[in-house]
Amino acid sequence: MIHSFGVKNFTCFADWMELDLTLNEHVPEKFHNGTGISPLLCLKGSNASGKTNALKAIAFLKEFVTQSFLTSSERPFELDTFFQNKEPTEFYIQFTVKEGIKFFYEVKLDRQHVYYETLKKDNKIVLSREEQHFKASTFFDGITIPLSNYASMISSAFYYPETKQAIQPIYDFFQRIFSNVTRFGFTLYPDTIFDSNQTSIFAKQYKEDTKAFAFMQEFLQKFDTGIEKVEIRTQTTPDEKQFYYPVFTHSCEHMPYTLLETAESSGTRALFKNLLYYFFVLNYSGVLLFDEFDVNLHPDILPYLLELFTDPNKNLHNAQLIFTTYNNDIMELAGKYRTYLFEKEDNKSICYRLDEINNRLIRNDRSLVRLYEKGLLGGVPKVNVYGA
Q1: Integer Cα distance of 246 and 235 in angstroms
Q2: Sheet of 348-353: strands edge to edge?
Q3: Measured in whole angstroms, how far is the alpha carbon of residue 269 from the centre of its chain?
C-alpha cells in the first residue's frame, strides 16, 4: 500500500506536491479498514488544476523503477519538468509491500542522469547510490552491480541474478501499480498494462483467467446493461494469429440475441475493459491510478466500484484506488479524509487534503458537496464570462 507520495518540479508542480494516505487513530475505522491507510483517494479540482499530473507522476516513477534498465540505452528520460526548466526532479514514496514490510524510496534525476537514489527499510538505509556509485548495499549483503546514468538501481538489481531475489518484493510493488494515464495524459484504454488497446488483448485475458471472466460477467449483469451472458470467441487472422473478441447475449421476449462489442453502449464497452483492471488490483494487492474513472458510467454505478475498495470483505488484499473525477457526489463517499483538492496559483499547482483545511464548516455530518459547489473549499474553476 502507498502511505505517501511526493514530487517536486514535475509538469505543473514547481514545488512539492504531496499525497498522504495515512490516517491517525482519531479517524473512524470505516475510512481505513483498520490499516491506518486509506484504500482510496479522490482527486478533485477544475480543469488544468494538476489532478491528472499527480497520477502521471506516480505512473512515471513506476515505469522508471521497473523498466529503466531495459529501456535506458543511454538515452534521456521522457521527463517533463515545470515549464521545461533544467533543474532536476525529485520523487519520494513510502509504501508497504505485500509481505507487510515498510519501505521509503526517493530519487533525484533529470533528463540526463540520476543524481541519487535511496531505499530505506524500517527507517534504515539499506540501499543508496550517488551518480553511478553505490554508497550502501546492505540489502544485497554487500554485493554491488554496475549502474547506468539512465537506470534505477532497483530496475538494475532486478535483472541481475545475484540481487533479483532480494529486490523482488520492491519491484513487485511498483509493478502492481496500474494506470490509465501516459506522459500525454488520460487514455481510455491504457497501453501501460497490456501493451495494446485492442479488444482482443482484453478478451484474451478473460479467456485465460476464469476468475477474471466471472468477475467481469457478474458486474455487467449487476449494472443493468441488459446482458445475460458473455462469451469469448476466437478467430484466426490472415497472418495465422488468434484474434479474441467478446460476444454479448441479450434476451428479448424470451429470445436470445447476440451482439458484438461495437454494438454495445460506450458504458458497457468501458466496463468490459476496466473491470479487468479492478480484478487484477484487488487480487494482487495493487494500486489502481484511474483518471476520470467515471467516464461513460452512470453515477449510480460509481458507489459499487468504490465499495470494492472500501469494503474489507471485498478488498481482501489491501488494494488501493487513486482516482480523479468531475462527479461531485463522490466527495460524500470519499469524505474529507480521502479527498484532495487541486488549484493553481500563478500557474503553479498546489493540493491539500480536506481535513487539512482550518474550516469549521467541514464536519463529518455535513455535506461536502454543498460547501464545494459554493466555492467554500476551493478547487473550483474561476470562470470569466466576457460580454455578459
Answers
A1: 11
A2: 177-179, 287-290, 320-324, 40-45, 339-345, 348-353
A3: 21
Nine cell digits for residue 201: 488483448
Supply the pLDDT for residue 203. Answer: 94
User: Are 200 and 214 within 8 A, CB to CB?
Assistant: no
Burial class from Cβ neighbours inside 10 Å (0-12, 13-18, 19+) for residue 216 reads buried
Distance CA 12, CA 5 (A): 16
DSSP letter string over 133-193?
Answer: EEEE-GGGTT------TTS-HHHHHHTSHHHHHHHHHHHHHHHTEEESEETTEE-SS-HHH
In this structure, what are the phi and psi dihedrals at residue 160, rounded to the nearest 5 degrees? -110, 125
Q: Which residue positions in the chain have pLDDT lower than 70? A: 72-76, 183-198, 224, 358-361, 363-366, 381-388
What is the four-CA torsion angle of 71, 105, 320, 318, rounded to 10 degrees?
A: 120
Report the Cα 204 to chain-centroid distance in Å.
23
- Only one residue has cell 489532478, namely 51
Neighbours of 328 (CB within 10 A): 15
CA distance 207 to 36: 37
CA angle 181, 318, 11 (to 5 degrees): 25
Phi/psi at 162 (5° precision): -70, -25
Task: Report d(CA 163, CA 144) in Å as an integer.
Answer: 9
CA nearest neighbour of 91 among 121, 58, 51, 66: 58
Q: At CA 115, angle to CA 109 and CA 116, rounded to 5?
A: 105
- Nearest CA to 159 among 147, 149, 141? 147
What crossing angle do the helices spanning 266-283 and 210-222 adopt, rounded to 10°?
A: 130
For residue 121, the one-letter residue type is K
User: What whole-number distance in Å separates Cα of residue 260 and Cα of residue 246?
Assistant: 7
Cβ neighbour number for residue 60 with a 10 Å cutoff: 24
What cell was used for 91? 520523487
Other CB atoms within 10 Å distance of the CB of residue 76: 12
Q: Is 210 helix (H, G, I), strand (E, B) or coil?
A: helix
C-alpha count within 13 angstroms, C-beta hemisphere, residue 198: 9
Cα separations in angstroms, 9 against 90, 112, 113? 7, 15, 16
Q: What does the chain come to in residues? A: 388
Exposure string of 254-265, with b = 16+ CB inside 10 Å and e = fewer, is eeeeeeebeebe
Instruction: Give residue 249's Cα distance to chain centre.
Output: 32
What is the rounded CA–CA span in Å between residue 83 and residue 288? 28
